[in-house]
Amino acid sequence: MKFNWIACEPNCRGWVSAVGIITADTPKDFEEFSRGRQLGGATVVLDSSGGSVNDAITLGRRFRNLGLLTTVGVSLRGGQSVRPAVAPEAYCESMCVFLLLAGKKRYVPEAAHVRVHQIWMGDRADDAKAASYSAQDLMIVERDIGRLAKYTFDMGGAGDLLSLALSVPPWEDLHELDAGELKLTNLVTTDLVADVLPHVDISAPAMAELAPKTQARFGTEPEQPAKSTKTAEALVPTGGVAAPAAAAQK
Length: 250
Description:
- 25% of the residues lie in helices and 14% in strands.
- Mean pLDDT is 82; it is low at 206-248.
- The protein contains six helices and ten strands.
- It is an alpha/beta fold.
- Helix 2 (53-65) packs parallel to helix 3 (95-101) and helix 2 (53-65) runs parallel beside helix 4 (135-154).
- It has one domain: 2-enoyl-CoA Hydratase, Chain A, domain 1 (Alpha-Beta Complex).
């Protein structure tokens, strides 16, 4: 995941653009990004296909400790005569959804895609039905489900979020949450974009084409925690191109 600060002076504070896969390096990368910045109460604009369960939990708790706000979108830097903006047609999938949950206030544009699915052993997700699993594998997955459940309730999420996510196996497409489910799961806390991005245009047309989402591929070491699995490739001015995740994913 790549972090960039989108300056929006003098009429707005600016925000953090967070784009790409959550990996074992992501919490450290965020700490390096935040060093010397006054991020307390800032907004994070997410465009991510997910990634590592435990590293997403670590990052999400850091977001909450900073009192960050969250939303979904593609951050557009603008130029000399164009103000920065947020294109709403973006994706927040898998463990990105739980980063969204970390926001003290949370807004999801109508055009955004918020999608969930199960935790699974990454190296066996391509043919999950035919794969074999050891007791150790099951222990890892169940342990991480427990960690994710505690995190969800600590962040103020509803059990419905876990129920929806854990009902979608890796051989099925991700489940996209509709407006009712976004509220049922408590992922959305406000219907007003101004509550998270005051003075920012979030209805601007995208300046970059979003690559279509494809079923992600998992890859993991037996001792690695379960992770998130969708791979997104959004070519955006402020972020990078998300690379396929390499460990067990959700």
